[in-house]
Amino acid sequence: MAQDIDQRMVLDAYEKIHEHGEAKQGKHVLNDITASTDHDGYRVYLEGCNVKLTVNFHSSYNLDYKTEHDLDRFLRRLEDISKDYHKPGRNE
User: Fold this and answer.
1) For 3-28, what is each residue's pLDDT tens digit?
2) Looking at beta carbons, which pairs linking 80-83 to residues 24 or more positions away fall under 8 Å?
3) By its UniProt entry, which Pfam families does this protein fall under (predicted)?
């Protein structure tokens, strides 16, 4: 099933995981979501809730999941991270 995602929200969540999450072996973890990037920064990887999301440089992405429930839970968790963590000096 095709799934449209808010890539701006996803990248915002990635940035906040990277900033506020715990660093573990080249990855960052926050609220059970793991975030990483490839060596040149052209791909962003997010994993959690039995879902793997890869966001590519030109805004294409790949979702790997087994159930809609897992996907919904994963996207809700990313939305929560995006909303709940604010960068210092950012007026939102």
Assistant:
1) 689 999 999 999 999 999 999 999 99
2) 80/31, 81/13, 81/16, 81/17, 81/30, 81/31, 81/33, 82/9, 82/12, 82/13, 82/16
3) DUF3081 (PF11280)
pTM for this structure?
0.86
* Residues in a beta bridge with 33: 30
Q: What phi, psi does 51 have (nearest 5°)?
A: -130, 140
d(CA 13, CA 11): 5
| Contact between residue 55 and residue 11 where contact means Cβ atoms under 8 Å apart | yes
Contact yes or no for 50/66 (Cβ under 8 A): yes
Map tokens 């709940």 to a residue.
84
Of 46, 51, 21, nearest to 36 by C-alpha is 46
Q: Which residues make Cβ contacts (< 8 Å) with residue 69, sequence separation at least 6?
A: none
Q: How far apart are CA 57 and CA 5, in angstroms?
A: 15
